[in-house]
Design a protein that fits this description.
This protein has about 290 residues and is α+β, with helices and mostly antiparallel strands. The protein is built from 6 helices and 10 strands; from the N terminus they run H-E-H-E-E-E-E-E-E-E-H-H-H-H-E-E. Helix 1 crosses helix 6 and helix 5 packs across helix 6. The structure holds a DNA duplex (16 and 16 nucleotides).
DNA sequence: GGGTTAACCTGCGGGC
DNA sequence: TGCCCGCAGGTTAACC
């Protein structure tokens, strides 16, 4: 699933293959793909040059020139942005197609499960220090961007009364982390997913944040190695990083650190993977699934 | 107002 | 063989 490293890989691909080009046409093949568009998706884009590709957390956007609007994208769980020969067949999962006035490769938003979306939106009026598209003004900085303040994160995290994994998945607290990298970071930091946020010691918060950054950076390096020139995303899944996963999806397999079998717990209608040996839950912890 | 849950959606794999 | 069900998961509206 696309989390920060996958989205950053896509952003870099767009920066290389799409920025500087002018949109000729925008075609919506499935209305759900633009369900969050305030209106005028197909009318606003043609004639605009795509000036830059930016990202915060799992959202990315192309700034339109003139710079009053952005083409905002979220890949959801299965979204891909593919650049290729405009004459190639249009597969059944293509939801939106953009062509360019240079007649070169087109851009296709492909999304099997339709959780992703595109929208042409204005920028938020107040969102210093970064100019953000209005619909994502509430999304917190991600841990790899300069605007991220570890002290602010630590204070907000420990003020909460919930479990630490729930907090990591809350994009208004810290963005870019999804189910896979949350489990991996917690494993590295040796913290149980249900650990109460208001009991975390400063050293544990630091350990957690270091682990989050480490796992995101490692995945980013892995994502950066395996996409070819005209294929913007890797594959919309996390396959390339599979071999590096210590806990996620490894129920029953020995923990790489202590050998205890990894355990799967139901959590928020999905799963949490952890090692009962080195990620123990303090006695009496209230479990927020 | 913070915390939590259900709904959205499709393909795949397991069980019968 | 084919059907049914559970599972995968990010965001947000709606609830408590």
């Amino acid at each position: 699933m696309p989390e920060l490293p996958e989205v950053e890989t896509v952003r870099r691909g767009l920066e290389k293959h799409v920025t500087g080009r002018t949109v000729a046409s925008a075609e919506v093949l499935h209305p759900r793909a633009v369900r969050r568009d305030p209106g005028g998706f197909t009318a606003l884009l043609p004639g605009h040059r795509l000036a830059s590709a930016q990202r915060r957390g799992k959202y990315l956007w192309l700034t339109l020139d003139p710079a009053e609007h952005a083409l905002l994208a979220h890949l959801g769980m299965s979204g891909q942005l593919l650049v290729g020969d405009p004459d190639r067949p249009v597969s059944s999962h293509v939801r939106v197609r953009l062509t360019f006035d240079d007649g070169g490769p087109d851009l296709r938003f492909t999304d099997q499960r339709t959780f992703g979306h595109l929208a042409v939106v204005p920028f938020a009026t107040v969102s210093a220090p970064v100019l953000l598209p209005a619909p994502i003004a509430h999304i917190a900085p991600d841990p790899l961007e300069p605007a991220f303040d570890p002290a602010v994160f630590a204070a907000r995290l420990t003020r909460r009364k919930t479990g630490v994994k729930r907090a990591l998945l809350d994009q208004s607290l810290i963005s870019g982390v999804g189910n896979i990298y949350a489990d991996e970071a917690l494993w590295r930091a040796e913290l149980h997913w249900a650990r109460a946020t208001d009991t975390l010691k400063p050293a544990e918060v630091t350990r957690l944040l270091d682990a989050v950054r480490e796992v995101l950076n490692e995945a980013l390096v892995a994502g950066g190695t395996s996409f070819d020139s005209l294929y913007v995303n890797v594959n919309g899944e996390s396959g390339y990083f599979d071999r590096s996963l210590a806990a996620y999806g490894r129920a029953g397999e020995p923990c790489p650190r202590c050998g205890t079998p990894i355990r799967r717990d139901p959590f928020m209608n999905r799963s949490a993977f952890s090692c009962p040996g080195c990620q123990p839950l303090p006695r009496g912890t209230r479990i927020h699934r």
